[in-house]
Design goal:
By secondary structure, this protein is of the alpha+beta class. About 35% of the residues lie in helices and about 20% in strands. The chain is globular and about 85 Å long.
Length: about 725
């Protein structure tokens, strides 16, 4: 850690909170690394000499390049024969790839929702032309990426070099030497500008690991390009070896060992597998793959949910595991080992859960953070979506549900072709309801409707870096369209106020007590107190979920929030009953998709509220609310003045669209408070506000009418 006297008060506060999230072993381990880190702040990393690198002082780099070109002892992903097969089967995707490669030839780059950036001359790998920020030429450990001088995510994305595989594919697909020459020139320039351990590109072993995958896959595709000389190959190998050492030495540990650790280990394993001539490759691969097998079981839970409680990071983590499993399988004369089975099992159970989640036409819930990360970027699509990921998983695992729910892109096409995998959909698979008890997600699906209920933990490990305060949040999708959903991530670094709002309880379809968050934020990627969910029961055939969380027990007047969701499979109406154990000011929130408008006329009374949401003029959702306390409706649209940072929907990182947040507010009264909300798809006119009765023993009865007739939901005494 830097000297405390040099830190601003806000930074001191962050360090204090971060320290509180560490256990004694982590504190001791981090203390041991302080001296080594301080030394590297001055000197940077030292690149290993050839004797250390290869076990001999004067290697024959021409011969080593010859082995690389001949694929001696290593697997092959990008090659000319496979390129021809992929091109014949996917001409539209190839056309899009070549257009993306042409933009790279012009030094044009687009990341996240930011506008396109253009380098009219040579690329300055430390310069962000959108913000005008030039990151300093310092040892990487001495660079404070949180200083607020530009968006480090943007410059890291550029330096991941994930556009190089596009150029390599374009060379293989067209034979146009410009693509390969540009790729190798850029790599050469990058190595010159970014010596190991120096500059923003080396800030963190995670970035090093992800970049290694891109560089090596691209190099393999360019193996027979005339511009790849022994000298260039030697420079690239030295850089990659230095990065591999860093991936292991500086790997994330303890409360930081989330997807970053998987990226670091995957990068290390990729270097070891594709560069077997390195003296340390056998050890690196053994250690990295063994550690990845452990992380596969930790970070992909037994029910297939990602431990980070973030769908985007689940896909990213699963694909990092998939890259290593793929390369090992493609290696000549590969003999499967136990770690291979562990990696593929994790990929398979993750894919099975994701297939349950998206079915054949449902939208992807955007639970938790999503930074649009790619493990292997062969397709030029701007974001990594679940369905193309499922096609990749199907190629590796053969999972029928993944084949049925997946959609082929260039990444999955290359992999399926190399593996000779059957990409045909298994039409026998049909999605249904599902409950993932480890990850805490309930999927209630019937006909055209999908309801999701979040009964899981806040996130992974002590800091839960990528979780949102969304315990007991409900999602509703009908006919393949979100009606009520998660408004997304917003921002990481560029707009701190967006980040705070999009992680908050009020931004999710749950209940906020006294407008407080269920869990306590300690920083942009740190939670210091976690709400814990207790599940009372899940009945999939009946479409019922009953759970509570303790996040508001910390308040001066402690409150428990219990939520029962009743989504009968034979009805278009969903009932949500919220029981707050004590008198408290509270509000329900229902974030509506930006495509929906809300009728201006409000039907608000002291007994209930009614909101009608429309798409293109057609009523698609009617929300009716009743409560045992004085009740008023509230509506907020992100485009209005005074909306603050709520009322916005983020489809992409660093972009937002205004949307409606609607709900009801209840005033504190004596005793428990009950709020009952009907979500009526299609806005059926005959649906009336629910009626609530409370018994002396604490039992709650809610009478309501659905499309199939009158119903009663009973919530037992706490």
């Amino acid at each position: 850690m830097p000297g405390l006297r040099s830190l601003a008060p806000a930074k001191l506060t962050w360090y204090a909170r971060r320290l509180q999230s560490m256990g004694p072993r982590e504190v001791a381990d981090r203390a041991l690394t302080v001296g080594a880190t301080a030394a590297r702040r001055v000197t940077g990393d030292r690149e290993p000499d050839d004797a250390t690198l290869l076990g001999r002082a004067d290697p024959d780099w021409a011969a080593l390049l010859g082995d690389f070109r001949a694929d001696t002892g290593r697997p092959v992903l990008l090659d000319r024969d496979t390129a021809a097969t992929v091109a014949a089967a996917h001409p539209g995707a190839v056309k899009e790839l070549l257009a993306a490669a042409d933009r790279v030839l012009e030094h044009r780059f687009t990341f996240f929702a930011h506008p396109e950036a253009h380098y009219p001359g040579p690329i300055d790998w430390s310069y962000d032309p959108l913000s005008g920020v030039h990151w300093p030429d310092l040892p990487s450990h001495a660079i404070n990426h949180r200083a607020g001088h530009g968006d480090p995510k943007w410059i890291w994305e550029l330096n991941r070099l994930q556009h190089l595989p596009w150029l390599a594919q374009a060379w293989l697909l067209t034979g146009d030497e410009r693509y390969g020459t540009e790729a190798l020139d850029q790599l050469d320039a990058w190595i010159t500008a970014n010596p190991p351990g120096r500059g923003i590109a080396w800030r963190g072993a995670f970035e090093v690991g992800v970049r290694a995958i891109s560089v090596l896959v691209a190099l393999q595709g360019l193996a027979d390009h005339p511009a790849l000389t022994p000298e260039r190959y030697a420079r690239a190998v030295r850089m990659l070896a230095a990065g591999a050492r860093r991936c292991w030495r500086d790997r994330s540990k303890h409360s930081s060992a989330n997807n970053h650790l998987v990226g670091e280990l995957a990068g290390l394993a990729t270097v070891a597998i594709l560069l077997p001539e390195l003296a340390a490759s056998a050890r690196w691969e053994r250690d990295a793959v063994a550690a990845l097998a452990v992380e596969a079981d930790r970070q992909i839970l037994p029910d297939g949910v990602g431990a980070e409680q973030a769908v985007g990071y689940q896909v990213f983590t699963a694909e990092l595991l998939a890259v290593v499993a793929l390369l090992r399988r493609l290696r000549p004369a590969h003999v499967p080992a136990p770690p291979d089975g562990t990696l593929l099992a994790a990929l398979g159970r993750s894919a099975a859960h994701l297939a349950d989640l998206v079915g054949t036409d449902d939208p992807t819930p955007r639970t938790g953070d999503d930074d649009e990360g790619f493990a292997l970027r062969l397709d030029p699509a701007p974001t990594r979506e679940v369905r193309p990921h499922l096609a990749l998983a199907a190629a590796l695992t053969g999972l029928p549900a993944a084949r049925r729910a997946g959609t082929t892109d260039l990444t999955s096409a290359w992999i399926a072709t190399r593996l000779g995998a059957d990409s045909r959909a298994d039409l026998a698979w049909e999605p249904g309801s599902a409950y993932a008890p480890d990850g805490g997600l309930v999927i209630l699906r019937t006909g055209r409707r999908r309801v999701t209920v979040d009964v899981g933990p806040l996130g992974y490990l002590a800091i839960a870096a990528h979780g949102h305060a969304d315990a007991l949040a409900v999602g509703l999708a009908v006919d393949g369209h979100d009606l009520v959903g998660d408004p997304g991530t917003g921002s990481y670094f560029a707009h701190p106020q967006w980040r705070t709002a999009h992680r908050s309880t009020r931004a999710h379809a749950t209940v906020a007590v006294d407008d407080a968050d269920q869990s306590v934020m300690g920083g942009p990627f740190l939670w210091t107190e976690h709400a814990t969910v207790r599940v009372h029961g899940v009945d999939l055939p009946a479409g019922r979920v009953d759970a509570e969380h303790d996040g508001y027990r910390r308040l001066p007047s402690p409150v428990t929030h219990r939520r029962v969701v009743d989504a009968p499979p034979d009805d278009d109406v969903v009932l949500v009953v919220d029981v707050l154990s004590e008198a408290c000011p509270a509000r329900t929130t229902w974030p509506l998709h930006p495509d929906l408008t809300v009728d201006e006329r409000a039907d608000d009374t002291t007994d209930g509220t009614t909101v009608v949401a429309r798409r293109g003029g057609d009523a698609v959702l009617r929300i009716l609310t009743a409560a045992t306390a004085p009740l008023t409706g509230w509506r907020l649209y992100g485009g209005d003045e005074g909306a603050g940072e709520l009322g916005w929907w983020s489809d992409r990182l660093e972009a937002r669209r205004p949307c409606w947040f609607v709900g009801a507010q209840v005033a504190p009264v004596a005793g428990p408070v009950v709020v009952a909300t009907l979500l009526a798809a299609g806005a059926a006119e005959h649906v009336d506000a629910p009626a609530i009765e409370t018994g002396a023993d604490g039992t709650v009865r809610v009478r309501w009418r659905g499309t199939s007739g009158p119903r009663e939901t009973v919530v037992g005494a706490p």
